[in-house]
Amino acid sequence: MGGTRADYKITLLTSNKAAALTIRNPRQQSGQEFVCQMYKVMSRLRRNGNQFNIRWIPSHEDNKLLGLAKEQARAATQKDAAAQEQVPRMKSTTLNIARKKAGPSNGLPENTGRHAKRVDAALPGKHTRQLYDQLSWKEASVLAQLRTGMARLNGYLSRINVAETDQCACGQARETVEHFLFRCRKWTAYRTELLQCTDTHRGNISFFLGGKSPSDDQNWTPNLEAVRASIQFAIATGRLEAT
After folding, report:
1. Is 213 buried (19+), middle (13-18) or exposed (0-12) by CB count in 10 A?
2. What are 77-124's pLDDT values in tens digits?
3. Does the predicted model carry a pTM greater than 0.70?
4. Which position has the higher pLDDT, 168 or 46?
5. ∠38-43-49 over CA atoms, to 5°?
6. Chain centre distance of CA 182
7. Which end of the chain is more exposed for a tag (fewer CB within 10 A), N or C?
8. Is 203 left (phi over 0), alpha (psi -120 to 50) or beta?
């Protein structure tokens, strides 16, 4: 493929819905090294002017390309097959198995970030089901990105070596969830519904993402209207979607 060509439309097909979601929305789960490698290749292709899409195909769908991919996968696992390149170990899988053997825990998982704990002091809690139950797949994905901080924003993407900088395109600050939701001037026109939700909690990330802040009392419940406004804001901007 020529490095200067701009007329290629590349589509990555997979019958694994979880894999498609992982590639579209990078997080720190098992196989993260594979995801980083793929993003580097995809970024290089896009810089050369190519278009790149990820498409999930149900395994029962009659697709010749999917059938060919399965044949290639079977061939790669035959007894005499040799790996073309050394692949990274999925360290998180090993760690998760070790944790399960160590016994159950009532606390937060080790890999739950500081961002999630700061957003929601009530984690882990039953209220999270209330937050996600009525959401579509797309809405739930957006809310999960915002609540965990593992979002398609440069502040996170730079940490996993997917983005070259952690700075927002507006040039004013790191592109964090808080900056994206409340401060980036690029999205000012989209914040009308967010600002209408409250006069007293503006800029309160816990309030807008369905979390409990340290100042909330024991009768606290998440404000679902504010949560939905945050989700709709993020979707309207298109910033958290795979490009």
Report:
1. middle
2. 555 555 555 555 555 554 555 445 444 444 444 444 688 888 988 887
3. no
4. 168
5. 135
6. 19
7. N
8. left
